[in-house]
Structures are given as structure tokens and as C-alpha cells.
Amino acid sequence: MTCQAGRALHNTIIMQDASSPEQDAAAPAYDWSGLWGGMRAALSLPGLVMSCSFIGFGALINSLGFPLLAGAATVPLIWALPGQVLFVTMWHSGLALLLIAAAVSLTAVRLLPMVIGVLARVRLPGAPRWPEYLLSYFTAVTIWVLSVTHLDNVPKQQHLPWLVGLGATLMTAMCVVVPAGYYMADLLPPVLAACMVFFTPAFFLLSLIASAKWRFDWAAVAAGIVLLPLARWFAPDFDLMLAGVGGGTLAFLLFRPRRKGLIGKGQPHE
Predict the structure, then answer these.
(1) Separation in Å, CA 129 to CA 31, 135, 165, 168
(2) What is the pLDDT of residues 229-250, one digit of tens each?
(3) Taking the alpha carbons of 11, 13, 14, 18 in that order, is the dihedral positive or negative?
């Protein structure tokens, strides 16, 4: 009996060893060939719009006397144009560095829902987690918009690599564009240089409108636009947050039941 039990245990171990490569092969894994698709996507209209905004940012830091190297360093260190503009303008005003850091950190809080939404869309259960941390670093408004509008045409296992390639390419390009805007500052009219900073918010708004599928989406955009002047008047320091949260909540309360009625009738469900 002891010999039989020993042989049975030996056979079990051999079977487990033989099946482990198959199990490893069956484990979910990201397809990193999608990295190149994301890099190519950066060389399109969103990349052009972002480049125009960062040219304006380069011209801004020139006009404020902000060091070029420090201005270019804000691209990988902050990676959100509103936070970068806030950083250099507060520095120019002579405010304490700790206060500047706190203010820039607060502007970054708005990106948290975007990061959560993007990761929920692209993650593969059981896959390694480190690519998710990498994508979180690159995620900002443009990454979030393109994840909504472009990923339907990308295979699921390539979603995360595609966005990483997009984010890495855009960040690298903006590190070059900022110095270009800095040295072009004398060639650009001041009004034009200031307006170029707003290219990205304008693109963001137009992308929201273009990607709207439900009355809920249209209502959220419209309510946010209507509420923004009121929020600006009552609480100028929190106007964008109040308009966005208020508009989205109002649209959710008014149109959520109607959206539920569409499910099960052949309509897509978000």
C-alpha cells in the first residue's frame, strides 16, 4: 500500500508539472504589439491639438521668465496642462513652494475618476498589475477621451499597451514642443499664444460631444455648460468641479430611468 501511495503521489506531481506550462500559457497577458498602434495614434489630430496647447505653454513660460528646463520638466512631473499653468503662474507670483504643491495636487484630483474609468476598461483579470501603474502615470484628459472614442476598434488584449504607447509618445513629444514654443514666443502675438493654451480644453469639449450616444450624455454636457457660469459666479475656485459634478448628477437623475428602458431592446449598453 505504501508503494502504491508513493507511486500515486509521484504521478500526481508529474501531472501537475506537465500541466503548469499550459496553465501559464492560458493566463491572461497583454499583447504589447498594440504599443505601436498607440504610438501611431499620437501622430493624429489629438496630438496636433495638444502640441498647439503646449506651444502656447512654452510661450507663456517665456513671458513669465520661467526657466526653460524647469518648464519642460513640468511635462513628465505634472503631465496636466492646467496644473502646469497653475504651477508657473503661482511661482511667478512668488507664493510658497508648499502652497504651490498643494494647489497643483488639488488640480490633479480631477484626474482620479478618469484613471479609474480607463483602468476598469482596459485591465485583464489575472494579468500582471505593473502595466496598470504605468498607464495610471500617463492617464490625463486626452488619454481618457481617446480610450472612449478609439478602443472599440482595438483588440481587448491590446487596449492597455495601446494607451501606454499613446501616452509615452505624447509625453515625449511635448517635452520637445515646449522648448519650441519657448523660442517661438517672440514670433507669436501675445493674444494668440494665450489662446493656444485653450486648444486642449476645446478639443476635450468637442470630443465629449462627438462621443455622446445617449440623451444622458447630451444632457450632462449641456447641463455642465449651463451651470459653469453660475458656478464661476458663486465659487470661482471650484467652478469647473461644481459644473461637472452638478451637470452629471442632474443628467443622471433625469435620464437614468429612460436609459434603463433601452436595455434589452437591441441597443448597446455602456
Answers:
(1) 14, 10, 17, 18
(2) 888 888 776 777 778 788 888 8
(3) positive
